[in-house]
Amino acid sequence: MKILVTGGCGFIGSHTIVDLVQNGYEVISVDNNSRSNPVIMQGIETILGKKIKNYPVDLCNFEDTRAIFQENPDIEGIIHFAAYKAVGESVENPLLYFENNNGSLVNILKCVDEFVIPHFVFSSSCTVYGNPVSIPVTELTPQQPPESPYGSTKQMGEAIVQQTMNSLKDQQAILLRYFNPVGAHPSNLIGEVPVGRPANLVPAITQTAIGKLPQMQVWGNDYDTRDGSCLRDYIHVSDIAHAHTLALNYLVQKKNQTNCDVFNLGSGNGSTVLEVIKTFEKVSGEKLNYVIGPRRGGDVIAIYANNDKAVNELGWTCQYNLEDMMKTAWEWEKKLAGK
Ligand code: WQD
To answer: Are 170 and 292 found together in one domain?
Structure first.
């Protein structure tokens, strides 16, 4: 079965292509590399021992997007990752985010409609919960106003998918809400390649440890958490990737309960920023050069997942713990630095 992965050169997209192919799917990718590095495709092809076709198309261009489906009438599923995801940048430039993230989603869904693509998986995010009313969050935890325009694009994206599925009769969707994807493929042939200075915690840690950044800041240690620093649910990118294969299987086997099922993809464990740093220092043997800085605007104080639904309904189990996440992230950073 042929699957189109959008954002296939991205962090989660690349790991998902590997998992899909290793589980018997045929995959093509579309990625204009505006926020990803095309070199990652070499890593994917080395792991798989086969070429993966990538269409370097901007999904905001409907005609170019539509042409992919005309050329590939046997596409039966889509996993839609392509989107900008820098929370800070979205605050600076909200219209860039609404145009890109929601504009590209509308174009893809117009093709789902016109070409009757039966299975659609949407890359959503725990950011839709905002600062949750209670933790751990389940899929039914009420959504709060999102902390950033990025979060708005994901909340709106979910509504766009849900309401489009309601208007179509032969198509089914799944929304996957990622918590904090980190780490790198165990082969060390693919991993996260941040564009510019990393906003996210784990690449900031590894780039500081390798010497690409002189020092990192912990954005606040005066929050109402067990050690004052923010709490998140870190999840290995390969565990996230495999959940996409299971979600597709779930749709193909018609196990879905509704035309747009939702799943939390988190480990179910919460870790604070300082605990992540301590774990990194333990597995790498490196002393991290960090200072406590001011709070970062838009940060959620604490969130982690109740992942029972994905475990029980998708048959998903997390294979990697926080030490594995730090170990693979560190090995990948050393690889990028040629060490
Ligand atoms: C985590 C914690 C920071 C950098 C991410 C993605 C977003 C979405 C949800 C997928 C926060 C602290 C960070 C640093 C720090 N993912 N931090 N110093 O904000 O939870 O959002 O997950 O959709 O796209 O951005 O992740 O890694 O940016 O921050 O102290 O140098 O680490 O303040 O408390 P976040 P993050």
So the answer is: no
pLDDT in tens, 243-290: 999 999 999 999 999 999 999 999 999 999 999 999 999 999 999 999
Nearest atom, ligand 1, residue 204 CA:
31
Q: How is residue 265 annotated by DSSP?
A: E
Residues that are catalytic: 150
Regarding whether 241 and 126 lie in a shared domain, the answer is: yes
56 and 156 together in one domain:
yes
Strand partners, 263: 176
Please indicate, yes or no, if residue 191 is contained in any of the structural domains.
Answer: no
DSSP string, 137-160: B-TTSPPPPPSSHHHHHHHHHHHH
Model confidence pLDDT, tens digit, residues 210-219? 999 999 999 9
Q: Are residues 219 and 76 in the same domain?
A: no
Report the residue among 15, 35, 87 best suited for mutation to probe ligand 1: largest number of ligand atoms under 8 A from its CB: 87
Q: Which residue has a Cα nearest atom 22 of ligand 1?
A: 180
